[in-house]
UniProtKB/TrEMBL annotation:
<dbReference type="InterPro" id="IPR008490">
    <property type="entry name" value="Transposase_InsH_N"/>
</dbReference>
<dbReference type="InterPro" id="IPR047629">
    <property type="entry name" value="IS1182_transpos"/>
</dbReference>
<feature type="compositionally biased region" description="Low complexity">
    <location>
        <begin position="178"/>
        <end position="187"/>
    </location>
</feature>
<dbReference type="Pfam" id="PF05598">
    <property type="entry name" value="DUF772"/>
</dbReference>
<feature type="domain" description="Transposase DDE">
    <location>
        <begin position="342"/>
        <end position="463"/>
    </location>
</feature>
<feature type="region of interest" description="Disordered">
    <location>
        <begin position="178"/>
        <end position="231"/>
    </location>
</feature>
<feature type="domain" description="Transposase InsH N-terminal">
    <location>
        <begin position="16"/>
        <end position="111"/>
    </location>
</feature>
<dbReference type="Pfam" id="PF13751">
    <property type="entry name" value="DDE_Tnp_1_6"/>
</dbReference>
<protein>
    <submittedName>
        <fullName>Transposase IS4 family protein</fullName>
    </submittedName>
</protein>
<dbReference type="InterPro" id="IPR025668">
    <property type="entry name" value="Tnp_DDE_dom"/>
</dbReference>
């Protein structure tokens, strides 16, 4: 006989969430991982002692973590999803007939709390991962990727010209306000960019000839009034967009994120390393871990970075740029004199320090004018210049060590370690933890969003971790059997089992 289920929307008088949510449920286990009480202490200074009670800080952080775990960026959709899930309601501490907070309350609370509270929550989760044995700490892999900002290129406006910094008004130097500095630029810079743009537009076969209505957009000449701190960046193979840069450090043991931060997307990756390493080392030292190997891609290649990491006692496994050559063909370097010797036997001594176009320190080596003018090899060595000269990095010795490291067997292994460690983490953050697009405005707000995604990622890794322990029993043989046996010290494995701590 065919059955038929009849539904009667009746009022249930005997219902408990704790009985409906099983003990192995993810969110039920998540509530027991941390002691959430510290969040109330951290956020107490931002509230007044009078007025209406605010949203519970613990409930707020649980809500935004649910949004990252469920890959929901919209606060409105987050509230709708939480109202339909019994396990999430139990995790938040809400009854079935109790109304959840309004979605605008979540947005205002996110702006109210400082980034230090989010970082403290990240530290607490990271400490739990260390205690569970998921973090080794000795080898860290660092990489960065652009994250779309909550602004479009259609919202860009041209910057207004400002007075030069050297000018004064009424005897006082002119210093624009931080907000005005984003929306304006020096007049000479705008003129130079306008000239450069006109040349590119009018060049035969250039952009202007192919696309007459095309505009050249640059961070030097344009800004977004929607999100003034978002920057125009270009990723190979993709169109220009307003982005933030997400820098991530991942431990090589099990892929736990050890550091994450939001940076401006119009700078090179190498410029963010000196600020990232001290924060990473502080977190590792607080958990009694020591950083020994630093692995990154070529984007972090910089002479100062090599010397900085070596000074910190860290081995940099960062490939150098392909154009770098450790030695010049036909020239030998003499370390004692700090000079190069040319094929004719003349010295090119060190002359002075200088800065390159990208702001790096370089050393200039130059031969004497008389030596080159009287040299029989001048036409084949330096026919155009009056004398031979070399421009080397001020950190050339550190560059040379890095060049030899990347060609060693350990360097090839570190390249594979970087690819299999950090790239899957970035893929997960962008596609499964709500970091494909930052839904907030400002770099600080983007930093909070990235911290929440990293916290959710580490929490899921922590709850999935099931440590195994093998218990062995040894069988003692009788003296007679021992003499007959050739393996007197063999241990017989009788039983093994594994259990989960969670």
């Amino acid at each position: 006989m065919q059955g038929k289920k009849d539904f009667h929307d009746k009022v249930s008088t005997h219902f408990r969430l704790s009985e409906r949510v099983p003990t192995h449920n993810f969110y039920r286990r998540l509530g027991d991982v941390l002691d959430w009480e510290f969040l109330r202490q951290q956020t107490r200074p931002v509230y007044s002692h009078t007025g209406q009670p605010s949203l519970d800080p613990v409930v707020f952080f649980k809500l935004v973590l649910v949004g990252r775990l469920e890959n929901i960026v919209s606060d409105r959709r987050l509230i709708e999803q939480c109202a339909l899930r019994l396990d999430i309601l139990y995790f938040l501490g809400y009854e079935v007939d109790e109304d959840l907070p309004w979605h605008s309350t979540i947005s205002r609370t996110r702006q109210l709390y400082p980034a230090a509270v989010f970082e403290h929550l990240f530290d607490q989760v990271f400490r739990q991962c260390v205690r569970a044995g998921l973090v080794a700490g000795d080898t860290q892999v660092v990489d960065s990727a652009p994250v779309k900002a909550a602004a479009s290129l259609d919202s860009l406006r041209e910057k207004q010209a400002t007075l030069a910094p050297s000018l004064t008004v009424a005897g006082e130097p002119v210093t624009p306000a931080p907000a005005a500095a984003v929306r304006s630029a020096p007049a000479h810079q705008l003129r130079r960019e306008a000239t450069r743009r006109a040349k590119r537009q009018g060049a035969p076969g250039g952009l202007g000839a192919r696309h007459p209505k095309a505009q050249l957009l640059s961070n030097k000449t344009h800004y977004s009034p929607t999100d003034p701190e978002a920057r125009i960046s270009v990723k190979p193979g993709k169109a220009r967009a307003l982005n933030y840069l997400c820098s991530v450090a991942v431990d090589t043991a099990t892929g736990i994120i050890s550091h994450i931060q939001a940076d401006f997307a119009d700078r090179r990756d190498s410029t963010h390393l000196p600020g990232l390493v001290p924060l990473l080392q502080t977190r590792l030292v607080a958990n009694e871990l020591t950083l020994r190997d630093f692995v990154a891609d070529t984007g972090y290649s910089n002479g100062f970075n090599y010397a900085f990491l070596e000074q910190q006692g860290v081995t940099p496994w960062i490939p150098v740029f392909g154009a770098y050559k450790p030695v010049a063909e036909g020239f030998t370097y003499e370390a004692e004199a700090d000079a190069f010797r040319c094929p004719a036997g003349k010295l090119l001594p060190f002359r002075n320090f200088a800065t390159s176009q990208d702001g790096n320190w370089v050393k200039n080596y130059r031969a004497a004018y008389q030596d080159c003018q009287q040299c029989p090899l001048k036409m084949s060595c330096t026919p155009a210049a009056p004398q031979q000269k070399f421009v080397r990095s001020a950190f050339d010795t550190a560059y040379r060590r890095a060049w030899h490291r990347q060609r060693s067997r350990a360097g090839q292994r570190m390249r594979v370690v970087r690819q299999r460690t950090v790239e899957p983490v970035f893929g997960s953050l962008l596609h499964h933890y709500g970091l494909r697009r930052v839904g907030t405005k400002g770099r600080v707000a983007a930093h909070k969003a990235m911290l929440l995604s990293a916290i959710a990622y580490n929490l899921k890794k922590l709850l999935k971790h099931q440590p195994k322990r093998v218990v062995s029993l040894a069988l003692a043989l009788q003296p007679g059997l021992q003499r007959q046996s050739k393996s007197l010290f063999r241990v017989w494995l009788l039983a093994d089992y594994s259990y989960s701590v969670l």
